[in-house]
Specification:
Oligomer: single chain
Strand content: under 5%
CATH architecture of one domain: Orthogonal Bundle
Number of helices: 4
CATH class of one domain: Mainly Alpha
Largest sheet: 2 strands, antiparallel
CATH superfamily of one domain: Winged helix-like DNA-binding domain superfamily/Winged helix DNA-binding domain
Structural class: mainly alpha
Shape: elongated
Number of strands: 2
CATH topology of one domain: Arc Repressor Mutant, subunit A
Strand order of the largest sheet: 1-2
């Protein structure tokens, strides 16, 4: 009988079985317990940072902060609500985001942390 092997396997040995099946007498739970005992312990989770305080009253940041009290909003809504230009609002939002005063959701909306 003719055996057909792909060309990329020519000259290579047959792969060896790395995992052997457990016999009926061996208990799988014993192997799991050993693996769990050898695994490194996970570090304790870090405590969440306290929320950043709100901005000073009477500033453009305070206007944005007050607008976000009603929930997350997009940049256009914040521009209309504050009366700032788009470029000024972009700079303001970026600075507030970097400072941790606000955050941007995956949907692109700005919200309080």
């Amino acid at each position: 009988m003719l055996e057909i092997r792909p060309r990329f396997l020519e000259g290579h040995a047959e792969p060896k079985t790395v995992v052997r099946p457990l016999s009926a007498a061996e208990e799988p739970a014993a192997y799991i317990d050993k693996a769990v005992a050898r695994a490194p312990a996970r570090p304790a989770p870090k405590a969440a940072a306290p929320p950043a305080p709100g901005p000073e009253a009477g500033t453009p940041e305070a206007k944005v902060w007050d607008l976000l009290a009603g929930g997350a909003q997009d940049a256009d809504s914040l521009i209309r609500g504050t009366g700032l230009s788009a470029s000024d609002m972009a700079v303001l939002l970026l600075n507030m985001e970097i400072s941790g005063i606000i955050r941007r959701s995956p949907a692109g909306l700005f919200e309080k942390p």
